[in-house]
Amino acid sequence: MHVVYINLFKALIRLWQGEYKGLDSGTGNYVIPHAMWRRIGIETRCAVKTIPAAFVRSIPNINTDFNSFTAEDNAFWLTWLAPYLLAGRLPEPYYSHLLKLIKIIKICTSFGMTKGELHDLGTDLYNWRLDYEE
Prior knowledge:
By secondary structure, the chain is mainly alpha-helical. It contains 5 helices and no strands. The protein starts with a helix and ends with a helix.
């Protein structure tokens, strides 16, 4: 849980905010402007208000209160909100790469896994990591 929902999630958010370990975007175009992050934060809060409490508790504003996010907040935001909140905001190919990660996460956290899914999971993880390192 901590590898993905704490370490990787926080690294990705910081990377997309242009605040990852003092690195700039280099030749990539993956930094989401601060004005968009403000809007994403507001949309996060609004979206959670319409989701039943059995599925998610109140999530902090990802723009202003990111350090208050718990592993549970990270998991829900990354898995269920990010595909919608980052659509059209996180440029390609980074958005597609995010969707591949979400697919992997959903398979890993499902209640069951077929042998085919297990086989594909190893390949998907390997390919995702290679793409991430590029």
